[in-house]
Amino acid sequence: MSASKNKQNIAEVASARNRFESALQHLVDRRDEGQESSDEGGEIDICLSEPSPIQSPSKRSSSNRGRKRKRAKDDFDYEPGQYQHTYIMKLFDRSVDLAVFDEDSPLYPICRAWLKNNPHSREPPPRSPTPEPENPAQSSEEETDRIPDIYKMPPPIKQDPDDHTDYRIPHPVPQPKTYFFISDAEDAPPAEGLLMKHMERWKQVRQSWVDQGRINEMRFGESMQLLRDIFDCQMKDV
């Protein structure tokens, strides 16, 4: 029972393989016929004599070779502006012939040809216009107005190279020395007087920090001027 089933399976596989090969051969024949019709389109073939049905295989093969030779000769007679090969790619519902473009072609004309959806058109792709040379006088004026590329900001100004003082920190404000005993009620100053003295001193401390900050910013004057020039140049373009 198993042997007969194996024979049946082998027969089914062979039959399916034969049908598949015949379908492939049919597709190949249709493609060859389409190529022959496209190659011979626009030409009128005049048959002087029809081949007899009992013609020998050698004569048929010689006639086929003669026709292929003629077709190859016609292929070499194309004009320089024509394209002989096609490579049509279909994307979604549109097609484009990629054979008219080379590997250095920009993407924009390829997309435009895809939008036209006419892959069999023999028109060459449009060439991009050659840019006009710039006026040297105008370019020189632009170069003078343009700020050169900056890769490093200028260093801050240092008065003394050997001075390692931190210019951000001001000198401490001197505090008056008053001696009193806080436990002695008669000798100790009142709380209001102490508060006023502390407030006056801390105002001086705050002002000293503000003044020292301005002095420190003056050391970066070149960098600030450079940033201001860059900002003004950008605002001119806007």
TrEMBL record:
Q: Which intervals of the chain are annotated as region Disordered?
A: 24-78, 119-152
Report the leader peptide range: none
Matching entries from Pfam families are given as:
LIN37 (PF15306)
- Output a single Gene Ontology CC term carried by this record: Myb complex
Give a GO biological-process term: negative regulation of transcription by RNA polymerase II
Report the protein name in the record: Protein lin-37 homolog
Name the species this protein comes from: Crassostrea virginica
- GN (gene name): LOC111109397
